[in-house]
Specification:
about 210 residues; mainly alpha; two-stranded antiparallel ribbon; globular
Length: about 210
């Protein structure tokens, strides 16, 4: 079990952070920009419900899909583990850790969606901003390890005190807060200024051409 657990296997935990964060960003980027490019976003805004409700439903649907992916991944890990003799009753396997991992990965996906849905409004510039943010926080962590909580890739970096798992609370509070702010700003931008941003982009493209 220690080889399959993201909290007991540090390398697996680091890889999982990157994989799920990227998946969350990709999910965010395919929510609204493609609909804007295909002019179907105007149809959604014309529905007899508030625009922010459309935004919330799409974001919530993406989060539900990502949580399902996390759950399936952990069910498969449990299924593989169950083939080992005495795996369920062994001291290594813990249902508490199993559920904690699901909760942490679901939270990571929510944070990634928050970052991504805001960055997606700016398309390529948003991707560049995210890369710059990760580069700066990684550099700060390298210069001063006490600032590791700034780096989103450390959300699954835990400490072990006997059987107790110490979570990186500062990192979770920081990035959860930033993600909430990003979602609010993204909602304001997509709901209120999406059309204006498209017209601005078209004027830039015509000017360059």
């Amino acid at each position: 079990w220690s080889e399959l657990s993201i909290l007991l296997n540090a390398q697996l935990g680091q890889n999982s952070v990157m994989i799920y964060f990227i998946i969350g960003l990709v999910a965010a980027y395919i929510l609204l920009p493609p609909e804007q490019d295909q002019r179907t976003l105007e149809f959604l805004w014309a529905l007899p419900i508030r625009r922010w409700q459309v935004f919330a439903v799409k974001l919530g649907s993406a989060f539900a899909v990502l949580c399902s992916l996390v759950l399936i991944d952990h069910l498969l890990a449990w299924w593989v583990q169950s083939f080992h003799s005495n795996s369920i009753t062994s001291s290594q396997f813990s249902w508490n850790i199993w559920w904690l991992e699901i909760a942490m990965l679901s939270g990571l996906c929510a944070i990634a969606l928050g970052y991504g849905v805001f960055a997606s409004f700016f398309r390529t510039f948003g991707v560049l901003a995210l890369v710059l943010f990760w580069t700066v926080t990684s550099f700060l962590e390298f210069q001063n390890p006490s600032l590791s909580y700034l780096n989103v890739t450390n959300l699954l970096t835990v400490e072990h005190r006997g059987s107790e798992i110490i979570l990186p609370e500062n990192a979770w509070w920081l990035h959860s807060g930033i993600a909430v702010v990003c979602v609010i700003l993204a909602c304001l931008l997509w709901v209120g200024h999406a059309e204006a941003f498209v017209r601005f982009g078209e004027r830039i493209r015509r000017g360059v051409a």
